[in-house]
Every structure is written in C-alpha cells, then in structure tokens.
C-alpha cells in the first residue's frame, strides 16, 4: 500500500483545462472519494493516476516515487495500480477464472500459487461458484465483483474505481457498497473512488474531495463536509438543506458570530471573520408555533419515521424534518440554531450553476 | 524504483519498434505505385507534365472517366441494396436457414469477374446454350442485352454485394443486444428498432462497406472488359488495358496518368466516407450478447421465399448456364442428352499438365499471401487506431491505392519496380515471387480494414484494464487484442485467400511459363476461343471453392463465434 500525492497537477485537452493545479495527499490505506458533477475533472484525475493520460503540468507520486511529471513517466503496467472500470472491462473471451488469473499470469506466478490466489480472490468477492462462467453469463453485480477480484488478486499499491456502481440497480448498490467496505478493510488498500453520487461518497469514504470545474473545492471527512462546508457549491452539492445569504451584525458571543439570517438574529459557528452565507441543514430547524419567523409549507414527503418539509420563508426555500404530517399551504413557525457560516462572495452564481448541473 | 525504470524501458522499446513496421508496409504497398507515378511524370527522361495534360485533355479519357463513375456508382448502389438487405435480415430477424443463405451469398464474390461475366453471357443472348435447350433463345443476330452499361452495373452490384454484407454484419455483431432490448422495452416494435436504433448504429459499417464496394468496382477489370469492350463502352481500366495491349510498353507513361486518375477518384471516395464516418462515430460500450432474432411474424415465409428466389437468380442460373456450356462438345452446339460430354472436363483436369501446375501455384500464392498479411495487419491496424500519427494516417489513406488501381496497372508498377532489385543484379521478374509481392500490395486493404474496424469498436478500457494489471504492449496485443479481433482477422484472411486463388488481372501480366495461375489458364483458354474448356475449368474451380468453404464449415464448431464469415 502506498500514499498518493498530487502537486500542482494540471491537464488540458486541446487547450481546454480539465484539471487546474490540483494539490492533494492521500494517505496509505485511506479510502478517498472524488465527488462532483459530470465534467468536473474527477475521471481525468483518476486516469492520470492510472497512467492512461500524461499530465500537462505538475507531478504525481505514488509511495514516494514520482510516476509522472518532472521529465518522468511510468507507464500504467509498471505502476502496480488496480483499476475497476465503469464498464467493468472484463475480457469477454476469458472465463471468470482466466480474467482474475491474468494479472498473475503476466507476473509469471507459478500455476499452483496462481490457482490458490485466484480461488482466494474469488471467495473474498463471493464468486467461488462462478469460476468457469464466461462474463456474458454473469449479472451486472457479478461482473463488478469479477472486476474487483481481478484488481485485488495482484495486491496493487492502490485501487482506483471509476463510477463502479453507476450501472447497477439501487438494491445491488447497497450490497456492493458492503463489498467495497469489506474489501477495503481486509486489504487495507489505498482506494480512490470516483462518483457523482454523494450518498455513495459519504457512506464509503474516509475523506471526500468535492470537485467542480477542474478544482478541488473541499477535501475533508464526510461529517465535516456536511457540518462545515467551505463554500456555496459544497454546501449545495453535499447533503440536504438550504444556503442563504447572511449579514454580519458585528456582535459575537461565546458560541459564535451573531448573523442576520432571513431577518432573524442567529448565532452561527464560523471559521471566517466576515461570512457571507449560512448553510441551514434540516437538523438546524425546529418547528415551533411561537417562533417569530413564519414559513409556508410547499411540499411534504414521508421518508419513513419522519416527514421532509419544504418551506418558503422570505422567498428562500428551507428544508426541515417533522414528526407530524403538514398540510400544503399551512403556515408554521421556524426556529434556527446551530448554523454554519462561511465566506463565499461569488457564491450565488456558483450555487445556481451547480443546482442547474445537478 | 530502479526495477520500475528498466521495466518501463522494455515497454517503451516495443512502443518505439512497432512504428518501424510502417516502413516495410509502405515500401511493399506503395513503392511500386510510387515508381509508376514517377514514370507518369516522366521520371528518367526529364521532368515534364506534357503527356499529363495531353492525356487528361483527350475526350476518350473524359468518356472513360464518366463511364467508370456511372458503372462503379451504380454497382455500389446495387451492392449496398443487396448486401444491406441480406445483412439486416440475416443478423436481426428470425428467418430460417441463415447459414445456407449466407453461404450462397458469398459464392458470387469468390467467382472471378470474368467467369461471372462469362456465366451471365451464357444465360442471355442468341448463342446461350441453356436458352437454346429451353427453346427460349432469341433469334441469331439479336444483341446481347448484357453488353451495356446496365449489364456492367448489374454484375458489379452482384459481384461486390458480399463485401457490403460482410462489413455490415460484422458491425451488427458488435451492437450490444442490450441496446436493442432497451429499445424494445421502450415499446419500439421491430421496424422502429431497426430504423431508430440499429440503422444509426450500423451506419459506420454500412458506409465502410459501401466505400469498399465502390473502390473495388472502380478497379474491376474483368466485367467491363467482357461486357463493355464488345459494346465499345470503355471504362478507365479497360481503356488502360486496350492501350497497353495495342501499343505495348511505349505507352507506360500515358497509362500511368490514367491510373493516377483512378487513384484520385478512389481517394476522393474513401475520404468522403471517412468524413461521413467521423460525424457518425459511436463508442459502443457493453458486451454483444446472443444474436438477435426479431420476429417478422407472418411476413417470414414470403421474405424467405423472396431471398431464395433472389439467390437462385443470381447464383444458380448463371452457374447452370456455365455448366451447360462446359458439357457441350463445341461452342454453339446445343446441349441434349446425346451431345452432352465430359470431354472438356477430362482434358482440363487430367490431360493438360499446365492446369495441374496452375492449381499448385494459385494455392501456394493464396495461402502465403493470407498468412503474411495476417501477421502484419494485426499490429498495423492496432498502430493505426491506437497510436495514430501523421505517418500512419497518410499510410492509412494511401493503402487503398494498390487495391483501387486496376490490376493491370499494379502489374506494370511491379514490373518496373522489381525488374531490377535496387542495389543488386537480382530480378524477381519471371519468378513466382513477383506475383506474391503484387498480391501482398494488392490485398493489404482486404485484410487490414476488417481488423481495423474491429479494433476501432473495441472498448479501449479492455486494453487499459490489461495495462493496469501489468501486461506490456506485446502481451496486450497477444492476449487481449488478438483474440477479440480474431473473428475479423479470420474473415479477412479467408477473403484474401479466396480472392487470391481466383486472381487474374495482376497475374495476367506477371506470369511466365511455370508460374501460371488458375486465372491465367482460364483466360488463355478463353482467349484462344476455347470457351467450353474455359467453362469446364471455371466450373472445376467453383466446385473447389465451394468444397473448401464446406470444409471450413465442417470444422465450424472448433472456431470461436464469428470466425467463419458465412456463419450466423
């Protein structure tokens, strides 16, 4: 297992920038998700790491060895990195066993050892009974497991996964997430996981890099992304809730700054001295009849155990959870608490664009 | 870390070595043509464009060019109609007896054009043996209806329909079944699936097949020679042949200009098809599953009958006419129970040593050409698709040239090039090797295009996956690209073999005593008025080819799916 380091990594395709000066470090054994809308550069970053593309500028290091940049380029076959493709890329002319055995065959592992390791990889991915099938005889989830087994069998320094669940149905996704989690725990492999599905990223990864327009907007643990988003894009793209502009009142107390949000003075946590926006998660809203801020219910969806309400308050759409059903058009009182404030002067534009993309 | 460096050095060296393959390919395929072009602009006698303008300004050139475009264009249209009709029905519908249908459709392409023309002429006109037998022959002196532009278009269209068929069906095989199933699940009926899903996705193959048929029809010599020359209807290849035969090597420069013209038309056709293909390209993701079988419902039986009637008309009738002619004692004698004789067959197969020698020569040339081309074209096609650079793109565009040029011209080019091997006193002229070199140059594209098409449609992730698990370029080519391109490669090799075994136009000018090919012997017999013996030899070759195809068919279970072109 090895750590991955990107320094000032850039990639342009025919003049159009796809990645813009990426700096990031992924620790050995860490499970990192690259999350972002399509076209944000996450797949480009993955392909650069695998060695299928040459960077336009900057460096990639794997376990201290520079594999791209500074006049060096190590070809994909010498990087010892496994990759699981969105299309699985199983070789249709080889059986499941032969697909998984191929990396060992290339490495000239003796037949007996090869068979043992393939059998182990197949049983780890629950494919023991399918060794002699051809890929065309497998379901999507089984093909995905073969791709994973093929990757795991040669003990790569890192494993890259390119939207691995995009072609699977929802119930399979949940069980495949368990497979990935188990795979990561058993092997301790460094994993880089590309997805546009935030629930996948938040559920699986130790840390998530949220990307947009060729840049990493925030790189942090899932709970930090959720509770303390760095800008309007991250706040809007990750998790449920609303992003609302806020005005500084100049006052502060021990819990944080006092900001004017939707006409109310609210105490907010913040890392910036002069925040411009607040992120209002559903958990930050309590419905109370006596609250001064009034809001009209515009939608009510049952999620099992609770209702998700969309509220219209001073022309902003807020999201709240409620134990009771609410009638559309009903007016409720809203109390805000535990908000997170950040500074993002260009926020409105970015947010609009992100929502349109998503 | 040092281990990684030495390893990557090895991989890069193959990456560096592989492009060197372009050099011998360019030399063999394009060297003779280049030599001929130099001859065209007066190489050796001072550079001049005099005869260039002279030849191009002649009215006979313009007429021949117009005739070539009309016949090749019309023939291509007909080929596309026949080939695509059969390809769609065979690949997509639930008609029965697909293998037999495809088998029969392949046969016209494997019969040399002169034989096709000869056979069709035996079926029409006043001296047709079969029409006389049935009492349907028109009165003596009435014109042969096939001696016309329409006759040439008809035969060109039939001759090259299987090119379109093969290319299109190979493309249809690559369409993942899920795409069609997805369309059907969206509520589309078979007609809609065909028009809105299959047709757009198969357009690249259809265009590629059409381009191939056009280029082949443009260079076809046998059919316009047999049908056009008697009618005074000259196309560019027959014009070249007539001038060369009439005037001798003194017109080499002039003929070079005419061939330049054909080359220019062929390149225009290919570039046009590329332009269209570029806009139409799709990357197909997914596995192509079980063969499709959309139900035709009640229309199935009528469609099947129509297809078999069609096959009967274009295949069985002309061959029966040819057979009838081969069984009469002398040309013009009607065939009856009393006149029928196997004399011509016995003469051709057992008495004449030259025909036995021709069989050996033709088989050797065909097998060697197919094997050599197979070995070269796989890495070459990969190089052109995955590591395209300016040189490989240029070669890609020019490699159609030796195939598009009429065989006569390529023969002259080969004589000019190999009569004195550069830097030696050796000559290939008069040996069988000059024919082999000409075949290699000529059939490059026949082998290359199917492989290229299948590599182009291969998901690059297949190779990337192999690279990521540590397989070097050589291994990736052997373990991933080769098996996945094998069906197309095998189809190409079989095409090369069967085309080479029947080849006439190239060998007609390159043979010498001892190196006769089957085509040459047929031509010589025919030329000396031995139409009956020519028909007998031609029929024996048709039987041989059908037997060879049958042999391959018998071993069908041992080949992976898709290796045999006529198998569904």
UniProtKB/TrEMBL annotation, chain A:
<keyword id="KW-1003">Cell membrane</keyword>
<dbReference type="InterPro" id="IPR008995">
    <property type="entry name" value="Mo/tungstate-bd_C_term_dom"/>
</dbReference>
<dbReference type="Pfam" id="PF00005">
    <property type="entry name" value="ABC_tran"/>
</dbReference>
<protein>
    <submittedName>
        <fullName>Spermidine/putrescine ABC transporter ATP-binding protein</fullName>
    </submittedName>
</protein>
<keyword id="KW-0547">Nucleotide-binding</keyword>
<dbReference type="InterPro" id="IPR003439">
    <property type="entry name" value="ABC_transporter-like_ATP-bd"/>
</dbReference>
<keyword id="KW-0813">Transport</keyword>
<comment type="similarity">
    <text>Belongs to the ABC transporter superfamily.</text>
</comment>
<dbReference type="Pfam" id="PF08402">
    <property type="entry name" value="TOBE_2"/>
</dbReference>
<keyword id="KW-0067">ATP-binding</keyword>
<dbReference type="InterPro" id="IPR003593">
    <property type="entry name" value="AAA+_ATPase"/>
</dbReference>
<dbReference type="InterPro" id="IPR013611">
    <property type="entry name" value="Transp-assoc_OB_typ2"/>
</dbReference>
<dbReference type="InterPro" id="IPR047641">
    <property type="entry name" value="ABC_transpr_MalK/UgpC-like"/>
</dbReference>
<keyword id="KW-0472">Membrane</keyword>
<dbReference type="GO" id="GO:0055052">
    <property type="term" value="C:ATP-binding cassette (ABC) transporter complex, substrate-binding subunit-containing"/>
</dbReference>
<dbReference type="GO" id="GO:0005524">
    <property type="term" value="F:ATP binding"/>
</dbReference>
<dbReference type="GO" id="GO:0016887">
    <property type="term" value="F:ATP hydrolysis activity"/>
</dbReference>
<keyword id="KW-1278">Translocase</keyword>
<dbReference type="GO" id="GO:0140359">
    <property type="term" value="F:ABC-type transporter activity"/>
</dbReference>
<dbReference type="InterPro" id="IPR027417">
    <property type="entry name" value="P-loop_NTPase"/>
</dbReference>
<dbReference type="InterPro" id="IPR017871">
    <property type="entry name" value="ABC_transporter-like_CS"/>
</dbReference>
<feature type="domain" description="ABC transporter">
    <location>
        <begin position="4"/>
        <end position="238"/>
    </location>
</feature>
UniProtKB/TrEMBL annotation, chain B:
<feature type="transmembrane region" description="Helical">
    <location>
        <begin position="99"/>
        <end position="121"/>
    </location>
</feature>
<dbReference type="GO" id="GO:0005886">
    <property type="term" value="C:plasma membrane"/>
</dbReference>
<protein>
    <submittedName>
        <fullName>ABC transporter permease</fullName>
    </submittedName>
</protein>
<dbReference type="GO" id="GO:0055085">
    <property type="term" value="P:transmembrane transport"/>
</dbReference>
<feature type="transmembrane region" description="Helical">
    <location>
        <begin position="480"/>
        <end position="501"/>
    </location>
</feature>
<feature type="domain" description="ABC transmembrane type-1">
    <location>
        <begin position="65"/>
        <end position="273"/>
    </location>
</feature>
<feature type="transmembrane region" description="Helical">
    <location>
        <begin position="403"/>
        <end position="421"/>
    </location>
</feature>
<feature type="transmembrane region" description="Helical">
    <location>
        <begin position="251"/>
        <end position="272"/>
    </location>
</feature>
<keyword id="KW-1133">Transmembrane helix</keyword>
<feature type="domain" description="ABC transmembrane type-1">
    <location>
        <begin position="359"/>
        <end position="550"/>
    </location>
</feature>
<feature type="transmembrane region" description="Helical">
    <location>
        <begin position="427"/>
        <end position="448"/>
    </location>
</feature>
<feature type="transmembrane region" description="Helical">
    <location>
        <begin position="305"/>
        <end position="324"/>
    </location>
</feature>
<feature type="transmembrane region" description="Helical">
    <location>
        <begin position="363"/>
        <end position="383"/>
    </location>
</feature>
<comment type="similarity">
    <text>Belongs to the binding-protein-dependent transport system permease family.</text>
</comment>
<keyword id="KW-1003">Cell membrane</keyword>
<feature type="transmembrane region" description="Helical">
    <location>
        <begin position="69"/>
        <end position="92"/>
    </location>
</feature>
<dbReference type="Pfam" id="PF00528">
    <property type="entry name" value="BPD_transp_1"/>
</dbReference>
<keyword id="KW-0997">Cell inner membrane</keyword>
<feature type="transmembrane region" description="Helical">
    <location>
        <begin position="532"/>
        <end position="552"/>
    </location>
</feature>
<feature type="transmembrane region" description="Helical">
    <location>
        <begin position="146"/>
        <end position="168"/>
    </location>
</feature>
<dbReference type="InterPro" id="IPR000515">
    <property type="entry name" value="MetI-like"/>
</dbReference>
<keyword id="KW-0812">Transmembrane</keyword>
């Amino acid at each position: 297992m090895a750590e991955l380091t990107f320094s000032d990594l850039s990639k342009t395709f025919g003049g159009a920038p796809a990645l813009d000066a990426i700096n990031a470090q992924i620790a050995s054994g860490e499970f990192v998700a690259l999350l972002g809308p399509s076209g944000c550069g996450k797949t480009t970053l993955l392909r650069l790491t695998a060695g299928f593309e040459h960077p336009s500028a900057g460096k990639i290091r794997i376990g201290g060895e520079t594999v791209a940049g500074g006049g060096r380029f190590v070809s994909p076959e010498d990087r010892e990195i496994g990759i699981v493709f969105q299309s699985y890329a199983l070789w249709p002319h080889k059986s499941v066993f032969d697909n998984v055995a191929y990396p060992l065959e290339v490495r000239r592992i003796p037949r007996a050892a090869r068979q043992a390791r393939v059998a182990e990889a197949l049983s780890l991915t629950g494919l023991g009974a399918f060794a002699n099938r051809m890929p065309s005889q497998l379901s999507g989830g089984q093909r995905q497991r073969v791709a994973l087994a093929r990757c795991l069998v040669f003990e790569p320094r890192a494993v890259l996964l390119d939207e691995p669940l995009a072609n699977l149905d929802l119930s399979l996704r949940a069980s495949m997430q368990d497979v990935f989690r188990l795979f990561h725990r058993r092997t301790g492999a460094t994993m880089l996981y590309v997805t546009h599905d935030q629930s996948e990223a938040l559920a699986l990864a130790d840390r998530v890099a949220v990307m947009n327009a060729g840049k990493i907007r925030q790189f942090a643990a899932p709970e930090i992304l959720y509770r303390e988003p760095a800008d309007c894009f991250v706040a809007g793209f990750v998790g449920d809730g609303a992003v609302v502009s806020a005005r500084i009142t100049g006052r502060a107390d021990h819990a944080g700054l006092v900001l004017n949000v939707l006409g109310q003075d609210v105490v907010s946590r913040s890392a910036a001295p002069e925040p411009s926006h607040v992120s209002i998660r559903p958990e930050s809203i309590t419905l109370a009849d006596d609250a001064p801020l009034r809001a009209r219910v515009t939608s009510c969806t049952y999620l099992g155990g609770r209702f998700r309400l969309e509220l219209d308050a001073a022309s902003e759409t807020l999201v709240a959870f409620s134990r009771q059903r609410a009638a559309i058009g009903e007016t409720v009182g809203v109390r805000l608490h535990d908000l997170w404030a950040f500074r993002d002067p260009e926020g409105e534009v970015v947010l609009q664009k992100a929502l349109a993309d998503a | 870390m040092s281990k990684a460096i030495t390893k990557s050095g090895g991989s890069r060296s193959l990456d560096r070595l592989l492009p060197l393959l372009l050099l011998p390919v360019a030399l063999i395929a394009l060297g003779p043509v280049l030599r001929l072009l130099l001859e065209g602009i007066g190489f050796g006698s001072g550079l001049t464009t005099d005869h260039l303008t002279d030849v191009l300004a002649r009215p006979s050139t313009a007429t021949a060019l117009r005739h070539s475009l009309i016949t090749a264009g019309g023939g291509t249209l007909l080929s596309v109609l026949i080939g695509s009709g059969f390809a769609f029905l065979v690949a997509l519908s639930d008609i029965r007896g697909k293998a037999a249908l495809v088998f029969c459709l392949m046969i016209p392409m494997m019969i040399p054009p002169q034989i096709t023309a000869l056979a069709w002429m035996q079926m029409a006109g006043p001296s047709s043996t079969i029409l006389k037998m049935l009492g349907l022959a028109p009165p003596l002196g009435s014109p042969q209806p096939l001696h016309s532009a329409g006759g040439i278009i008809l035969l060109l269209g039939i001759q090259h329909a299987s090119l379109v068929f093969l290319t299109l069906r190979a493309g249809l095989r690559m369409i993942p079944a899920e795409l069609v199933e997805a369309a059907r699940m969206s509520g589309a009926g078979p007609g809609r699936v065909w028009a809105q899903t299959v047709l757009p996705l198969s357009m690249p193959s259809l265009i590629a097949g059409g381009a191939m048929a056009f280029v082949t029809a443009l260079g076809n010599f046998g059919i316009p020679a047999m049908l056009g020359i008697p009618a005074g209807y000259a196309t560019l290849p027959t014009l070249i042949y007539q001038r060369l035969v009439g005037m001798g090597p003194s017109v080499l420069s002039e003929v070079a200009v005419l061939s330049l013209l054909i080359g220019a038309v062929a390149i225009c056709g290919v570039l046009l098809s590329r332009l269209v293909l570029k806009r139409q390209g799709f990357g197909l993701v997914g596995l192509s599953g079980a063969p499709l079988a959309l139900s035709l419902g009640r229309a199935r039986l009528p469609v099947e009958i129509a297809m078999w009637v069609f096959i009967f008309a274009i295949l069985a009738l002309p061959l029966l006419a040819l057979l009838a002619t081969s069984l009469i004692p002398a040309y013009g004698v009607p065939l009856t129970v009393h006149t029928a004789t196997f004399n011509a067959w016995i003469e051709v197969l057992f008495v004449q040593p030259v025909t036995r020698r021709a069989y050996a020569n033709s088989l050797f040339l065909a097998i060697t050409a197919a094997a050599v081309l197979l070995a070269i074209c796989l890495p070459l096609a990969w190089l052109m698709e995955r590591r395209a650079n300016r040189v490989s793109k240029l070669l890609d565009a020019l490699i159609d040239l030796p195939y598009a040029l009429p065989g006569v011209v390529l023969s002259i080019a080969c004589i000019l090039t190999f009569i004195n091997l550069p830097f030696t006193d050796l000559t290939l002229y008069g040996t069988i090797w000059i024919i082999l070199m000409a075949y290699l140059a000529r059939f490059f594209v026949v082998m290359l295009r199917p492989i290229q098409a299948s590599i182009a449609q291969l998901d690059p992730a297949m190779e990337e996956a192999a690279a990521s698990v540590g397989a070097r370029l050589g291994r990736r080519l052997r373990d991933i690209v080769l098996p996945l391109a094998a069906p197309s490669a095998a189809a190409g090799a079989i095409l090369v073999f069967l085309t080479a075994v029947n080849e006439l136009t190239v060998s007609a000018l390159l043979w010498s005593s001892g190196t006769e090919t089957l085509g040459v012997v047929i031509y010589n017999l025919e030329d000396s008025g031995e139409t009956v013996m020519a028909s007998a030899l031609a029929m024996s070759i048709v039987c041989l080819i059908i037997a060879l195809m049958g042999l391959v068919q018998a071993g069908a279970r041992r080949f992976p799916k898709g290796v045999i072109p006529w198998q569904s």
